[in-house]
């Protein structure tokens, strides 16, 4: 059974697989040009929760395997009718993985996109299966965004 829920919307069971803590935490650190963006949406897949913090630090806590979370970032340009969005995806099954989606429309929600990482045959599913550790893309404005996971930290720059 798959479960998709808003961050912190429900408590989830702990999994003894992760030791006495019963969980594993992945920190997301936003630096450089990416820090001009703010988190506007965050969700998890399966047994995970996002921290309540806002700003440049977020924490994804997982309670088992085949868990992922997604953060949607937005920056309002000088023209408020055309905000810029990008998504950062962080997951763990037998190993950690990450991805980046850029130039999304306002209606490209986290829920729609995160589900694609669990549908066999999609490019997103392949990224998850390969345990991708880094991704880079440019927004239409020319802003370059890079996500890289090392140890238990995902750096968004």
Automatic annotation (TrEMBL):
One Pfam family from the record: FB_lectin
UniProt name for this protein: Uncharacterized protein
Organism: Sphagnum jensenii
